[in-house]
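Service request form, structural biology core

Requester: graduate student, group of Dr. S.
Request type: structure prediction, single chain
Budget code: on file
Notes: please return the result as structure tokens.

Sequence provided:
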Amino acid sequence: MTAQLHGILTALTTPFAPDGQIDASTLRRVVDRSIDGGVDGVVACGSTGEFAALSNAERRTVVETVIDQTAGRVPVIAQTGAVSTAEAVELSKHAEAAGASVLMVVAPYYEPLTTEETVHYLRTVADAVSIPIMLYNLPVATGVPLTPDLVRRLATETDNFRYIKDTSADMAYAGQLIHNHSDVISTFVGWDSLFLAALTEGSAGVMSGSANVIPAHLVSIHQALQNGDLDRARREWAQIYPLIDAITAAPYNAAVKTALDAVGFPVGRCRKPTLDLDPEAAAAISAAAAALPQLSTAK
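Core staff response, request fulfilled:
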């Protein structure tokens, strides 16, 4: 049985070589960076991984590479949502066969669906696999919010809907899931600036693109909370918040890659049409990264 997901999950960035192709060797180093930093799981082909800019063949390659490099050290969550049900089913079956622990499934994007169309899509994907599924609430991209009542309906009527990632940036919504529906589904908040709020509110964990950059810092805060040391968690959060704020204030995927550059771990540029950050945003990220505290073993 798949272990229950919890804690800090890195939404892995996808490195690209100068010719625009996936840089598989750097992707392996990205995986190791997060695992060495102590995270509790990694996510392949999420939004931070620029999945929408990848072909289905490339998405399969990324998932296979991440699973191989992880080598069972932490769970791998594969994002397999697509613009058509057939594609999502194909990608989901592939990820399950490749060894993914959990699937994360975003609803089709671009063309907003009705609620019932969304439900039918999600159930069709769920019926095609046997491993747990994480719903992905991303209404800004899909046009369809997964309301708390709908999430409960899905979780109670389909056994493998076990988790939800909320990227609505609405802590009130996440709070409803955490407090009213945790008996049927575990909530992960996917908005970096809500990291501390989500964990103190009682979320099962957080999914963060910033964990590519500062995995050990985020893990340290989580450990402080688990140890009941809220003061330490707040202190450490205040120290890294300027970087989190700078990343979330800029176009996100480019900001994560800019931050990795700033800490000496270059992963290439985003795929176009995403462009490099403007100089002011890049400078803000670099300055915040330079001010990061050194982690101490004495907590």
